[in-house]
Amino acid sequence: MKSRLFAGICTLALCSWSSIGLAQTASSTPSTTTPPLQGSAEALPASGDEDAIADIIVTGSRAIADGSQAPTPVTVTSGEQLVKANPGLIAESLNMLPAFRGSTRPTTGNVVATGPNAGSFLNLRNLGVQRTLVLLDGRRAAPSSREGATDVNLLPSDLVKRVDIVTGGASAAYGSDAVAGVVNFVLDNRFKGIKGTLQSGVSERGDGASIKGSVSAGTSFANDRGRIVASASYYDVQQIGSLADREWGRSNTGFLNNPANRGQLIFRDNLRAATASPGGVILSGPLALRQFGPGGTLVPFSRGTAQSGLIQVGGDGAQAFSSLSAGIETQNYFTHAEFDVTPSLTIFGQAALGLSKTEYNQIQQFNLGGFNGFTIFSGNAFLNPAVQQVLTQTNTPAFAMGRVNFDFGTPANALAKGRTLDLTAGFKYTGGGGLTIDGYYERGRNRTTIRTNNNVALERLYAAADAVRDPATNQIVCRVSLTDPGLYPGCVPINLFGVGAPSQEAIRYVEVNPAFRTTVKQDVADLSIRATPFATWAGDVALAAGGTYRRVELDQTTNDLANSVNDATGIRGFPAAYLNQPGGLLLSNVFPVAGSYHLWEVFGEAAVPLARDQPFLHALDVNGAVRYINYSTSGGVTTWKGGAVWEPVAGLRLRGTASRDIRAPNVPELFAGIVQQTGAVIENNVTVPIILATLGNADLRPEIAKTYTGGIVLQPDFAPGLTLSADYYSINVSGIITSLTPQLTLDQCRAGNDALCANITRNAAGTITRITSPTLNLNELKASGVDIEVGYRPSGDVFGGKAGFRVVASYLEKQQQIFTNGNIVDRAGEVGLSSNPRWNVVGNVTWTSDTFELFAQERFISAGRYDVTRSEPTTIEDNTVDHVFYTDLTASFKVAPKFRFYLTVNNLFDQDPPLAPTGTLIQYNRTNPQLYDVIGRFYTAGINFNF
């Protein structure tokens, strides 16, 4: 398989002429006769990128200064190439790289108001955002979420010189969280002059309009002993609030269990709620399957062509559309100043402020029969007399009713505002013998407020729904106002019978706009020393050592309603799913969190050359590192890494590493209170709505990962400018810190795990209403595959200009989940329920002349399976998801000596996403928005200036 894999990618690269440079590998011949990083430097475009490569201190090692001698694969992409690929948000460009899968970002529309989704958080290998470490100039970046992850859209993107991506474990070099790898943003802190950008964009459909402006300036002073640079940027893109804004989204395609073939999952268009309609549908009693029309009269309710649990195909059920893309507004302000106190000692100070605002629709307010629907009692004052007459004649005390409340107004929507401040001060000392001493102190602070507008207070809603006439005044009032006066002050009875029946006064009573706020603090003090104190027969030995102290604190305050327990005193018909359970809101029930941890750590590293210019030992280097970390919560743990680079002959290099990496639990995983969301599980082939509750666990232990990489790099003399590399990786993480999904909890319970059965709550009828999932050290996660890069930049002119191409590909061999009961699920190739395509390829080509530059990029995501746990046709009707190609094009023109105009078209051929439905309850997305483009063709035009 691997031989076919390598042969295929080499053929693709050499024959297709697809690309140069979304990503550049820090690789070249580690020979005294070859300049370090020559291949990578030539592969990068001009415009100053040579300087970006010349001073590489390779991410992934604290001892190695020459990236060509690093055994760990490091992918480098220049800031200019990121802008050409996507001139909007830097995270969108990075997520085009094959190494990133499953990243959390608001542009996917796949966002909620209970987690860190009000930003862009990178995910290497789809091992989880929390297992990808983000650095800024080699220093741990400030957190932007309660989980401690960094929103990369808040970094000063206008000054990003390059991004180094270590696609292997690096805990021995950088500490906790570097399990999947490290993403290091390297800034141009010595920029001189003034540069800026003004741009605007819009989709093919005229929505999602964006604007961006940035300016950066830098200068030196005191005879060039001092240097200062500053940057400011603003970006805004409008929300696309509904999937119905796209033709493919209007089909409302989703999944349901086939009622004609139990146990088989099917995909169908025009899915609707089976137990709710816009005006209310009666679900029990003599009037069952009648719905309320104008004036509260009853009309038949069509059940469509098929029904399964909460879902039906066609008919009169309510149809709700999820958000397509969030609205995003960011502001970034950055300054860096440094001064050479002596020729050997430089001090610096740095300040960064990032402001973000993200807005997105969640879901239309809903009350689904069989879950949180209404119980309407005989005698309700708003019932049509004809309906009441039937209830009286049949002696029916009450009936169940489901409703999706479109007439409440706009859907519940989340507004997240974040403010991240990062202050750093430090020094660098250089001396003889290659001595370098670096030290810094960093203080990062993030405050995020997430408000859910048009939310619903549960006790208010069900109190208002039970409307009666006051015998003393004959006025319609809430029943609880008579039976329990003062318990629900200001209760306004609500008419739920027919579209438009609720009064604005009643809607204002039941709707609330609750918010919660998180404040995350990070303090880091770090000191490291690097030197080359002696040499072997093959060259200098590099040593590095140092220590770090870090403290992280989280304080989360929430709304009183979210914290309340639903005792529902005096309220008839309060749903069993909510009764005596915490969380007084329909959505976004987030509870307070307060906690902190601190750690201290020490490390040492050595890089030793063993051979140079010997037969079959043109170069041989070994590298080793060890780090001890002591956590205040879980005690001490040791990480290590060993690696080697062997160049038997010039132009052929073999490299490999083995490492033990760790990730300690973050503050929410340790100390979080209950966080609730609505969801669904499948039991007995029926979709059952539930409330999912997760909570922290102070007894968590660090995750332990074992990582192995091995690769080959070719830079043949007969083809100057050609670089080919292939690296195999294997990552095995044990003691995964996670919460079981509701479905897994149920499945494991049914398989005999009694401990998990205790986390499932059922009502009197035996139907599941709630599943609690504590955070635990569970399972194992294994990922393995091959990363391949092929790049070529001809030394001479091509059609009168400079040209080059590059292909970056990733093949996923395994993405296994290993459960405590021994079951193994390999999600490699699954592109529906998860984002794990077998093949992910990016290729691009550039051609540059004095006045014109053309950049063309092709992205490929291979076909895959929707759900690897299902088989056709027994458990799923069609388990295939089509492959997809996306084409991006950027052209730029020098319109004046200091000005350049550019035009970018992303998704040039307006490719619709393939069918891979996601969703829950009654709200579906036709595709997997984490993996596929949902916006369509998008135009961006702008102008750069540089003085």
Explain what you see.
The protein is built from 15 helices and 54 strands. The longest helix has 15 residues, at 2-16. Mean pLDDT is 88; it is low at 1-58.
Shape: elongated
- Runs in which pLDDT lies below 50 for 5 or more consecutive residues are 1-58
Q: Give the helix tally.
A: 15
End-to-end distance, in Å?
Answer: 53 Å
| Main beta-sheet strand count, sense and barrel state | 22 strands, antiparallel, barrel
Strand content: over 45%
Could you tell me the mean pLDDT?
A: 88
Helix content: 10-25%
The chain-level structural class is mainly beta
| Radius of gyration over all CA atoms, rounded | 30 Å
Number of strands: 54
Please provide a brief summary of the model:
This protein is mostly beta strands.
Structural topology:
Blueprint: H1 2-16, E1 24-25, H2 38-43, H3 49-54, E2 74-78, H4 79-85, H5 90-94, E3 132-136, E4 139-140, E5 160-166, H6 171-174, E6 181-187, E7 193-203, E8 210-221, E9 226-237, H7 247-250, E10 254-257, E11 265-268, E12 271-273, E13 281-282, E14 290-292, E15 298-300, E16 306-308, E17 311-313, E18 320-321, E19 327-340, E20 345-363, E21 366-367, E22 374-377, H8 385-393, E23 398-404, E24 412-430, E25 436-453, E26 455-456, H9 458-465, E27 467-469, E28 476-478, H10 479-483, H11 504-510, E29 511-512, E30 515-536, E31 539-557, H12 560-563, E32 589-590, E33 593-614, E34 617-631, E35 635-649, E36 652-663, H13 667-671, E37 675-683, E38 686-695, E39 703-714, E40 722-738, H14 742-750, H15 754-757, E41 760-762, E42 768-774, E43 776-792, E44 802-818, E45 824-826, E46 839-848, E47 852-861, E48 864-865, E49 880-881, E50 884-896, E51 899-906, E52 918-920, E53 923-925, E54 938-946
Parallel strand pairs: 3-6, 18-53, 38-42
Antiparallel strand pairs: 1-2, 2-5, 3-4, 5-6, 7-8, 7-54, 8-9, 9-19, 10-11, 12-17, 13-23, 14-15, 16-17, 19-20, 20-24, 21-23, 22-23, 24-25, 25-30, 26-29, 27-28, 30-31, 31-33, 32-37, 33-34, 34-35, 35-36, 36-39, 37-38, 39-40, 40-43, 41-42, 43-44, 44-45, 44-46, 46-47, 47-50, 48-49, 50-51, 51-54, ...
